[in-house]
Task: structure prediction
Amino acid sequence: NMPRREKMLLCAGAVFLVLLFLMSSTDLIIKERAVQIDSISVILSEDTDDYYQNFRKGMEKAATDLRSDVRLITLYDRKDQDQQVELTAREIRDGAGAVVIEPAEEKAAVMALESLNPGCPVIFVSASSPSDFVTDSILIDYFEAGRILGEKAAEKNLPGEKVCLFAQGMAYNGVQDAYEGVCSVLNDQGISYELYVDKEGKAFRKVIENTVYPGTGPVEVVALDVQSLDRTASILNESSVYRDHVSALYGIGSTTGILNLLDQGIIDGLVTYDQFSQGYLSIKKAVEAIHGSRQKQETLLDPVYLDQQELASGAYEKMLYPME
Result:
């Protein structure tokens, strides 16, 4: 039979253990540092994220590294500026810590921000603005991208051959700058060109069909945005007859599909940039801005020209196919 003193000690020990357990489970001893998770909304200008594969990978990597909660939002109708403003207002109202926007139309987006007066940082991707409401912007120099394409088109240009410039809309991001870049070279060299603007791309098909019948003679095409490049390359991919009449196709932007068509020689050359870094930086800068540790900045990413050879050389493998 256990002496009374031992019983008391055992009971005291048990009580002590229970107390310890309670204290530790209710944070009385070990104060856990509450990890602040920044919520960031990313609003694109398209109705799908097909054009953003690498951008998205960069974003997700940054979200993991920086412990932030990132929501990727696409529009119901592509390039619908008003809808984008409504979604931006909604995200700010719902308490987003920062908003990353790829504006459909840069100037309209800035005017909308001025009247929204967001109480949180706003980061622009693929567009820039001196407005005080835009904390940071990450983009390529579209004029330079256009200039590079103009040089390439001029090199291949046959005597008397027209260059057709395709765009989905002049007010959309970077298109006007890219257009001016291409024209600066073509005007210099006295090469005639014509601009075709069509959000749906039907005009592009008509231009290409007309080279075959009634036979307007061969043309070169420079696409001023990724969607126009994608559309045009798909049309040329349908028939070798079209390819015989379009002597060269150049454009801005890259997706896996577009790179495959560059590899097959349907596209002669394109200008792209490090979209993974753009996605990563947009989240990194948003987090820094939430914590107030930064000055307004514009980050310019280098335009990279790729043709079939460059692609095959593998020099840009890591940039084009990150984390694979």
Remarks:
- Residues 45 and 104 are 5 Å apart (CA to CA).
- The radius of gyration is 27 Å.
- The chain has a mean pLDDT of 92.
